[in-house]
Amino acid sequence: MVIPAITDVTMAALCPGRDECSLAIYISGFQQAIIGLGSFVMMPLVGNLSDKYGRKALLTVPITLTIFPLAILAYSRTRSFFYAYYILKILTAMFCEGSVHCLSLAYVADNVPEGRRASAFGILSGIGSCAFVCGTLSTRFLSTASTFQVSTAMAMLSAVYMRVFLPDSIINDNLSTPIISEGKSDGVANQNEEPGKKMQVFKTMPSMEDMLALLKSSLTFSQAAIVSFFSNLADVGLHASLLYYLKARFHFNKDQFADLMVITGVAGTISQA
């Protein structure tokens, strides 16, 4: 819901009354760079902790943290509140960015038979795109202040629904297909350590060597990681500048951004489902 409106909020806070603002582009790019680096470090830790403590427990953290930056802009969108949102967004997004999607896929993998997982992943992605369409469409008919207030309420409702209705997933030793077997992690830890101790350390605090070992353990996984890197490199770079270009060149506001995103969201929903 907030994606079509955040460009207008950023421009109004940093360059009021103008359609062009280099500072807004620079600060948004810096934000995405820091979030990306932080996510690179945090996501393996989130995945390993979800193996140990359960998907539901780890889903609770990013879903709850997402509420706070939205609540700031729901209260006020002046420059001081924008900077508070900006700093808090960086800190929370390093943990939240992508973790809900990844943990949701892991939850589905835990609870859906292997032969039906690809279809289940597609349906889950289609539902996510449908939510994107509904959110951007509602933004089209709401004021900027109402957009952030409603999105904050929806984030809170999501957290409550997840805690009340979502049953917990398989955890730790009950995992049917752990991402790294004990044999594949032998090169990561000291050979003289006990196997149980090695796996416990790996599951709770993966290091950079652990991440490299995981990439080396599977050629398919490494190739998928390379594809994901270059795909997101182009996508994030385009997204970070496109909205500001459209505003500067064609004077777009949140309503036109929402119209454009609804079109792409509908196409994504159909193709993924």
TrEMBL record:
<dbReference type="Pfam" id="PF07690">
    <property type="entry name" value="MFS_1"/>
</dbReference>
<feature type="transmembrane region" description="Helical">
    <location>
        <begin position="57"/>
        <end position="76"/>
    </location>
</feature>
<keyword id="KW-0812">Transmembrane</keyword>
<dbReference type="InterPro" id="IPR036259">
    <property type="entry name" value="MFS_trans_sf"/>
</dbReference>
<keyword id="KW-0813">Transport</keyword>
<dbReference type="GO" id="GO:0022857">
    <property type="term" value="F:transmembrane transporter activity"/>
</dbReference>
<feature type="transmembrane region" description="Helical">
    <location>
        <begin position="82"/>
        <end position="108"/>
    </location>
</feature>
<dbReference type="InterPro" id="IPR020846">
    <property type="entry name" value="MFS_dom"/>
</dbReference>
<keyword id="KW-1133">Transmembrane helix</keyword>
<dbReference type="GO" id="GO:0016020">
    <property type="term" value="C:membrane"/>
</dbReference>
<feature type="transmembrane region" description="Helical">
    <location>
        <begin position="23"/>
        <end position="45"/>
    </location>
</feature>
<keyword id="KW-0472">Membrane</keyword>
<feature type="transmembrane region" description="Helical">
    <location>
        <begin position="148"/>
        <end position="166"/>
    </location>
</feature>
<dbReference type="InterPro" id="IPR011701">
    <property type="entry name" value="MFS"/>
</dbReference>
<feature type="transmembrane region" description="Helical">
    <location>
        <begin position="120"/>
        <end position="142"/>
    </location>
</feature>
<feature type="domain" description="Major facilitator superfamily (MFS) profile">
    <location>
        <begin position="1"/>
        <end position="170"/>
    </location>
</feature>
<protein>
    <recommendedName>
        <fullName>Major facilitator superfamily (MFS) profile domain-containing protein</fullName>
    </recommendedName>
</protein>
